[in-house]
Amino acid sequence: MKHKMKTRSIIVRCGSGQLLPFAIVFGLAVVLFGTISPGGGFQGGVIVASSALLLTLGYGYRTAHDAMHPHFLHSGEAFGAIVYVALALIGLLCGANFCRNIFWDNGAPGELISAGTITFMSWTVGFKVLTGVAFLLLLLLGLMAPDGDGEEDDET
C-alpha cells in the first residue's frame, strides 16, 4: 500500500514564492548594514537561511536540496570560519590583540565601512551563519521528507 501525500496548496506555493526574494534581500541588507544599524551578521544570516524553509514549504525538499547544494553550504561554513580567523589574526600581525579593530579610522561615521575590521568580521559571521543554518535546516527537513520526496507536483 503506497501512502500518498496531499499535494501542496497553490496558496502556500505562491506565498512562499513571493516571500522568498524579500527574505533574501532583507537578510542581506541586515548583514551588510549591521555595523551602522540594528542587526548584524548573525541576525541577517538567519533571515537569509530561512529561505531554505520557504523553498521547502513551497516547492518541496527535492527542489530546495537541488537549489541550495548542501555540499556547498557545508564547505561555505568552514570557509567563513577560516576567513573570520584570518581577519582576527590581522590584529596580531599589526602588533595588537587578537580580533583588534585596527582599521577603525577608515571612513566617516555612518558610512558602510566606517567600523573598520568589525564590518568585515560581521559580513563573515553573516556568511558563516547563513551557510551553517541553511545546511542544518536542509538536514532536518531531509530527515522529515518521506522517501522519494513523496511529492506530487500540481501544475494547476
Helix content bin: 55-70%
- C-alpha end-to-end distance: 27 Å
The proportion of residues in beta strands is under 5%
Order of helices and strands: HHHHH
Number of helical stretches of at least 4 residues: 5
Q: What spatial form do the alpha-carbon principal axes imply?
A: elongated
Which helices and strands occur, and which strands form pairs?
Elements: H1 10-32, H2 41-59, H3 61-68, H4 70-93, H5 117-144
Helix pairs in contact: 1-2, 2-3, 2-5, 3-5, 4-5
Annotation keywords:
mainly alpha, disordered C terminus
Characterise this structure.
This protein is mainly alpha-helical and 156 residues long. It is built from 5 helices and no strands. The chain has helices spanning 10-32, 41-59, 61-68, 70-93, 117-144. Helix 2 crosses helix 3, helix 2 (41-59) runs parallel beside helix 5 and helix 4 (70-93) runs antiparallel to helix 5 (117-144). The model is unreliable at 152-156 (pLDDT under 50).
Structure in a nutshell:
By secondary structure, the chain is mainly alpha-helical. It is built from 5 helices and no strands.
